[in-house]
């Protein structure tokens, strides 16, 4: 029997032992300590939350505050968090309501500062309760009164009815002390286990050596040369020799892997084509443009807008309009190739020519001049109808600007507004118009707030039986036109300015307050749009809570918060805390604009909203656009599996409604069914 393998086993045994000791001492033990400490911490937090829930439940039943405090005192006296942690209660003025250790009640809690900081502990705890965050701060211990390096953890919950802040008081190291000595215990157990397994391993190895040698001799009989073997294992002992026999299997696995990679590449290309290419014209789309220019330092963007394209659709029909879009795409693509730029279809009847290499400025004169003349004497030939359609275009051009797509769009608006064939963006015009717009709307918003002219409009949402089941609340400003008649201004005109001028909170407060008052006029649900920025804004949350405190639980059950999914959500744990807080009050949750931006299905599974509202961009052409149809169908299947109701917005025609109805949409919203108005039933 060949003995080389025993030498290898010996070395492997020594290396394995050293590796295992390193793993146990430096990796396993700290991980176990951290894991067990984390479990203990989580258990204590769960215990704290149960206590808070118990207090809140009793507060809703027991009207006598003194009697309630007696019950709470009995409860809290029996509670220990971790090793020595406890729960105490204070109110919004800083008065201690309950403190089992007298640690805080023996001092003026409202003026007590966090060591090595100017921050008041009382104020920091209140802030932490608003944002639903754990508060960590340094403190001393009784046996070490001058050492303020011990970390404390506080969980704080606020009961608005009682004006109580219920807070925990725990030292962080309480959760690690109970695992002292666990390293040596794990090491001892591991050593015994390793030795037992080693003995078993050696026994098994000896048992298989004889069969391996026998196999080795049999293979030699068929005169298989070791030098011809191609196995990745180069050893000359029995195992190395036998390993070579797997070469055929390895080759097959490699071939399968290559075939799989090729299939993945094909599927990836199909997905990219759908994501980056316009289905109608086969030009690259806005998503592709944004991706293409994101790493470019200098970019020129020329937006090409077909003038009066709606007239073409009305005169010849949408099918002919689509043929015009296709022909224009071909002409622009040929023109782009001539100048070494790229052609895109951005949306509707707007195209883009993007120069990522920046041709010389002198050549831009020629480029713009030729582009303006491109369709002047060149009709669009529609062979199917044997007609020629003449078109004009307007250009918005941005050269080497920081945000090329946005600035080209500003230039296009300026050109159309000024009845110019083209306009090249410059910073001066943008700045002047922004300042002028901000001053105008700031004053108009100020007057609207002062005169109580911020009003809610309600757009009805229908179920499958064509019954109104809820209303979406939309903001409007009441104003007068030149004839002195009442008009209502859309937030599209003023919302962005209100955020910059710090007037948004006042607008929101008036809308929410009036809509909550209108709850008494209807038995239907009322929904409100909230952005993630709203959720992060402490002042907004305080204002929202004050308005919610004015309505009873039955009315709260008819309130729906629509959270914008397309908004950039940076902290899903905070969002989950927000949803948990208001869902406990009976409020329903909807995810708005779902299907666009970064649709995170994993977090949707965690949040489990009551409703998903599919974005209008997927709905408006669903009866014509196959990609939109398939996307919406997938979203509906996903939502049904999660028992989440699906709402479709932007239902603007009978054809769109019928398509959505057949797909199984639960609720419908759009101008085809009902426009926003002051009325609510």
From TrEMBL:
SMART domains: EAL (SM00052), GGDEF (SM00267). GO terms for molecular function: cyclic-guanylate-specific phosphodiesterase activity. It comes from the Bacteria. Gene3D superfamilies: 3.30.70.270, 6.10.340.10, EAL domain, PAS domain. This is Uncharacterized protein. The lineage of its organism: Bacteria, Pseudomonadati, Campylobacterota, Epsilonproteobacteria, Campylobacterales.
């Amino acid at each position: 029997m060949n003995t080389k393998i025993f030498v290898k086993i010996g070395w492997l045994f020594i290396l394995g032992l050293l590796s295992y000791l390193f793993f146990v001492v430096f990796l396993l033990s700290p991980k176990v300590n951290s894991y067990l400490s984390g479990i203990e911490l989580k258990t204590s937090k769960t215990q704290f939350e149960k206590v808070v829930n118990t207090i809140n439940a009793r507060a809703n039943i027991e009207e006598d505050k003194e009697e309630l405090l007696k019950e709470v005192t009995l409860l809290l006296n029996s509670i220990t968090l971790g090793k020595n942690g406890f729960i105490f209660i204070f109110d919004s003025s800083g008065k201690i309501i309950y403190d089992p250790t007298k640690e805080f009640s023996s001092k003026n809690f409202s003026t007590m500062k966090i060591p090595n900081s100017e921050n008041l502990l009382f104020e920091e705890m209140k802030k932490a309760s608003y944002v639903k965050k754990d508060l960590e701060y340094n403190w001393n211990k009784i046996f070490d009164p001058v050492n303020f390096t011990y970390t404390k953890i506080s969980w704080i919950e606020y009961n608005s009815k009682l004006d109580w802040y219920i807070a925990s008081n725990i030292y962080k190291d309480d959760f690690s002390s109970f695992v002292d000595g666990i390293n040596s215990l794990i090491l001892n157990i591991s050593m015994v286990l390793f030795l037992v397994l080693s003995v078993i391993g050696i026994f098994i190895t000896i048992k298989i050596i004889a069969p391996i040698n026998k196999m080795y001799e049999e293979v030699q009989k068929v005169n298989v040369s070791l030098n011809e073997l191609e196995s990745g294992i180069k050893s000359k002992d029995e195992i190395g020799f036998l390993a070579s026999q797997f070469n055929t299997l390895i080759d097959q696995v490699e071939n399968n892997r290559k075939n799989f990679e090729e299939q993945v590449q094909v599927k990836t290309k199909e997905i990219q084509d759908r994501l980056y290419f316009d289905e109608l014209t086969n030009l690259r789309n806005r998503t592709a443009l944004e991706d293409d220019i994101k790493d470019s330092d200098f970019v020129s963007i020329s937006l090409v807008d077909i003038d009066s394209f709606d007239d073409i659709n009305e005169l010849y029909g949408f099918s002919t309009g689509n043929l015009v879009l296709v022909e224009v795409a071909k002409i622009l693509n040929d023109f782009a190739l001539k100048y070494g730029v790229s052609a895109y279809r951005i949306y509707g009847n707007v195209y883009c020519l993007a120069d990522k290499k920046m041709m010389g400025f002198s050549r831009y004169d020629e480029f713009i001049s030729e582009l303006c003349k491109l369709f002047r004497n060149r009709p669009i030939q529609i062979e199917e109808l044997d007609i020629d359609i003449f078109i004009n275009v307007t250009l918005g051009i941005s050269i080497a600007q920081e945000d090329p797509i946005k600035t080209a769009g500003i230039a296009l608006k300026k050109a159309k507004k000024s009845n110019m064939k083209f306009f090249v963006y410059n910073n001066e015009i943008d700045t002047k118009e922004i300042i002028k717009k901000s001053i105008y709307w700031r004053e108009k918003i100020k007057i609207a707030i002062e005169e109580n002219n911020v009003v809610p409009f309600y757009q009805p949402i229908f179920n499958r039986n064509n019954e109104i089941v809820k209303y979406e609340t939309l903001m409007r400003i009441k104003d007068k036109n030149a004839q002195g008649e009442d008009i209502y201004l859309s937030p599209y005109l003023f919302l962005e300015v209100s955020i910059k001028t710090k007037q948004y909170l006042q607008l929101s407060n008036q809308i929410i307050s009036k809509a909550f008052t209108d709850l008494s006029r209807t038995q239907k649900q009322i929904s409100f749009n909230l952005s993630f920025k709203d959720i992060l804004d402490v002042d907004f949350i305080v204002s929202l809570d004050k308005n919610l405190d004015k309505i009873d639980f039955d009315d709260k059950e008819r309130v729906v918060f629509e959270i914008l999914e397309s908004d950039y959500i940076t902290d899903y744990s905070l969002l989950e805390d927000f949803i948990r807080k208001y869902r406990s009050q009976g409020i329903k949750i909807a995810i708005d604009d779902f299907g666009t931006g970064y649709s995170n299905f994993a977090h949707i599974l965690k949040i489990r909203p009551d409703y998903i509202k599919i974005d209008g961009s997927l709905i408006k052409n669903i009866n014509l656009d196959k990609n939109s149809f398939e996307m919406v169908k997938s979203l509906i299947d996903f939502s049904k599996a999660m028992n989440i109701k699906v709402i479709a917005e932007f239902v603007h025609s009978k054809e769109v409604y019928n398509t959505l109805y057949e797909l199984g949409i639960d609720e419908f919203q759009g101008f085809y069914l009902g426009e926003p108005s002051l009325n609510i039933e």
